[in-house]
């Protein structure tokens, strides 16, 4: 059973930075792991992901060049460093795992295709 626990959310001014972390446990070697977010009144959307074994990094167009995802093998965590934050980035951010490790955007960008979810951490960007 995969378990995920996020940390690192908070309140930041526009233009600022935050780092989110997700501690993962369970058998993950063939899976993909990453981040999705859900803003008030909106559907959950894909943000970034990579293979737990490394590689195949994908980002949503809205965060490319501003967000960086990486895995810390020693700490069994996946991190999301968010730079140049905008008020539109305000959302609950979820760590999630995709058992199928889809490689096509039409598949991995769908929140329904992720099987395991953390509880979420709030990120609020003030203007």
Structure summary:
The protein is mainly β. 3% of the residues lie in helices and 48% in strands.
Radius of gyration: 13 Å
Biggest sheet, open or closed, and with what strands and sense? 7 strands, mixed
Please, what is the oligomeric state? single chain
Helical content (DSSP H or I, runs of 4+): under 10%
- What shape does the CA trace take? globular
Helical run tally: 1
Order of helices and strands: EEEEEEEEEHEE
The whole-number mean of residue pLDDT values reads 94
- Proportion of beta-strand residues: over 45%
N-C termini distance: 40 Å
Secondary-structure-derived class: mainly beta
What are the segments in which pLDDT stays under 50 over at least 5 consecutive residues? none
Count all strands and give the number: 11
Structure, explained:
With 127 residues, this protein is mostly beta strands. 3% of the residues lie in helices and 48% in strands. The chain contains one helix and eleven strands; from the N terminus they run E-E-E-E-E-E-E-E-E-H-E-E. It has one helix spanning 105-108, and strands at residues 3-7, 10-13, 18-25, 32-38, 45-51, 58-59, 67-72, 77-82, 91-98, 116-117, 121-126. Strands 2, 4, 5, 6, 9, 10 and 11 form a seven-stranded mixed β-sheet that branches. The radius of gyration is 13 Å and the shape is globular.
């Amino acid at each position: 059973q995969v378990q995920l626990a996020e940390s690192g959310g908070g309140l930041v001014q526009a233009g600022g930075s935050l780092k989110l972390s997700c501690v993962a446990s369970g058998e993950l070697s063939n899976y993909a792991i990453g981040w999705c977010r859900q803003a008030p009144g909106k559907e959950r959307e894909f943000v970034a992901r990579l293979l737990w074994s490394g590689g195949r990094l994908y980002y949503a167009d809205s965060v490319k060049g501003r967000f960086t995802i990486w895995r810390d093998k020693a700490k069994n965590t996946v991190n999301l460093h968010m730079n140049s934050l905008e008020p539109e980035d305000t959302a609950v951010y979820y760590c999630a795992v995709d058992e199928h490790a889809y490689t096509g955007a039409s598949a991995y960008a769908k929140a329904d295709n992720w099987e395991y979810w953390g509880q979420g951490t709030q990120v609020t960007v003030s203007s």
